[in-house]
Amino acid sequence: MAPAIITVSNTERSTIIQKYPELREKLRVVYNAVGTSFQNSDPKLLEKIKKKYELPDKFIFCLGNTSPKKNLSNILKAYYLYLEKSKEKLPLVLADHSPGDLFLFLNSNQSQHKENLKFIGYIRNSEMPYLYQLSHLFLYPSIRESFGIPILESMKMSTPVITSNISCMPEIAGRGAYYADPFDENSIATAMEELLQNPTLYKSMVDRGHQRVAEFSWRESAKKLLEIYENVYAESYPKKLKTKNKKL
Known about the structure:
The protein is of the alpha/beta class and 248 residues long. It has eleven helices and eight strands. Helix 2 packs across helix 5, helix 3 crosses helix 8 and helix 10 packs across helix 11. The chain starts with a strand and ends with a helix.
């Protein structure tokens, strides 16, 4: 059996322990972080992406696929509630890595609000920073995630996040996101309304997002990972490590 097992969040660690309690002492947590490509972009590049996907000037963004944990059904229900209540009816832009499935899903959920939905299909990783930066709000009320890196990516690009109050989301987002009950479309819709109609709250969430994402670093994660490797090596080969240290 492996001397150490690495996972990406304490939430995921707890989930593993529930299934395999004998692994408790072996489990270590090393967080993910945001890639270096997530930086404010040249306005010309932003305009190029905007034209490529025919994006509106102001929109809500959602990375949605048809996996039940992504909660697309409740996202759409919440969005329709938001449209019925709100004066400013921002379009919902949906991106997905399996466009065929999402297209079928949307067409099987008939709605009078379909004209407010825009499906842009597959998005390359290199284009994701632009999509976050162009969007006005990011919806991520998943039912379950191991880490939820899109939360941090959106924060990095100054776009407020609405996410779930369960699973790993509170652990990762901290005070940097606006929370909703993912099982309650009214809760998600209310969060959208409150955040979009309150400029002071909106700016506060942008600032909190910046503060939160700054707490995650690939450099720090690499240091922690190296420390785990060194400890495992020292425990497995103590004599070799002593010999190596003497030579040094």
